[in-house]
Amino acid sequence: MTRTLAASRLRSIFTCLTLLASPGFLFASDTAPDPSEQQVRPVHGMAMHGEPRYPEGFRHFDYLNPDAPKGGTLKMAVVANGFDSFNPFVIRGVAAAGISNYLYDTLLEYSADEAFSMYGLIAESLETPEDRSHVVYNLRQSARFQDGEPITAEDVKFSFETLTTEGHPFYRNYYADVSKVTVENPHRIRFDFQETSNRELPLILGQMPIMPAHYWKDREFGKNGLTPPVGSGAYQIDEFEAGRSIVYERLDDYWAQDLAVRKGRLNFDSIRYDYYTDDTVALEAFKAGSFDFRVETSAKNWATAYTGDRFDNGTIIKEAIEHHRPAGMQGFVFNTRKEVFSDPRVREALTYGFDFEWTNKNLFFGQYTRTNSYFENSELAATGLPSGRELEILEQYRSQLGEEIFTKPFAAPSTDGKQGLRQNLRVALELLRSAGYEVRDGKMVHAKTGEPLKFEILLFQKTFERVVLPFKNNLARLGIEMSVRLVDSNQYVQRVREFDFDMITQAIGQSDSPGNEQREFWHSSTADVNGSRNYAGVSDPVVDELVSLVIQAPDREELVQRTRALDRVLLSGHYVVPHWYLAKDRVAYWSHLKHPEKTPKNGTDLDNWWAQP
After folding, report:
1. Which of 214, 231, 361, 374 counts the most CB atoms within 10 A of its CB?
2. What is the pTM of this model?
């Protein structure tokens, strides 16, 4: 699984519940005190809208097996060219798989069967007034780092300041609206906000990994390299072979193991990751028993490779587990910073060169559905023509938007029908002509400059060439030259971080409650920040305003309508050639692994599984 979507198990991004504050007293004047200074009741958890599903004193999440046995080893594979860092929070280097998930705990823990609810982990409770102008976290006095030192408010402050000044640019954007951090006592910390309409801040701060200030006091944060750090989570690094393997060992005295948010989770005594440079080799290693669990991303493999006696007799189990999480957007991403892709008409023309129907039938055994939204597989996706509240939102920007947004529903080009690809290429040709291109001697060139229309697609997975080459051949029929460059995973990561590409294949995951992370994806302030996830270089004032509206949405219905408006405007910009999605997790695993009977809406999560004794 890649960090972009599956393997990182993209964390759901949430907005928060209005707390029931204790009523303020009216004084001689007829005005109430500042709501941010009213007494606020501490709560065990928060939801974006309404009450959280799980009440105070709940024993465990419903989708877990609280009696899951502890023990055993989980063996996993990573298809990549190794790792060179144990610091997953900086832009430098390639971090070891699993390190952010297993070494570090957060203030709050999310619930996988709600849109966005979080419950106390390091923080026993939290307090926030109705206007969301600040949040206070009350830390558990039992919380400990892996070296036995207590987790204090000073550590939380250190983590925030370090991540937002020395960490990945994502953190700076994600927590941009925090104006002040105050340590009120060793187990109580307050964050004040400069933008009180950013309603998810009390929850997304709860997602912050907590690091020990005492450990980093005499170390340089950005140069940790391969020195195992002290963390706050359930696992520590047991052993590793640089770039080839890493083993995490569960702490016997993990301080949080009996909390409701941890019951039934993190069950393996040890977790081992081995690195493979080739996915075909990794698949064969899985079937031979070298590792225990595999998420299959290849439709061809799923249809043809999981056969044999071990599958027939149940030694290895093949299972497609349905999920209800947003599928996000996977596609060929245009780098609009490049002159060749600066014109949206050129980008739109190239989308007509990709034949999804042929690809799905001939390469994917008909397993996929075409993606038509950045928030696919959710109620957040824009469909049909805009109407109601969504239309009201878009009307504010009508003069800045193309008329087609209001008159033509978006649909990715299809080759269904008699004319099929031929008709699509005709449409592409007309779009290119309108953008100033013409065909000369069989090559598509700009009529004024004579510059040929050519570009390079950057890949790190050789198996994806079978998808790209038919696309390349279709574009060649228009006189467009597309070259394919295959690089190793480390070089790919570095080039993508620096936006050193014309086109890439990328998956942009989404949660059921979009918020601050949308800045990282689409806002103009991130377009030229190396390491940001604004891969396409989106820089549009309308998108900027819609991103702010999404972040500031006061309730669920308004969030849905604002997100649909954002989705529609992004689609009209033709920043990607949409690919496909699958509303199931295709997994295979050796039969000693077990999972709960109930799968939450977010889908498969190995941290909920266990090994049969």
Report:
1. 374
2. 0.80
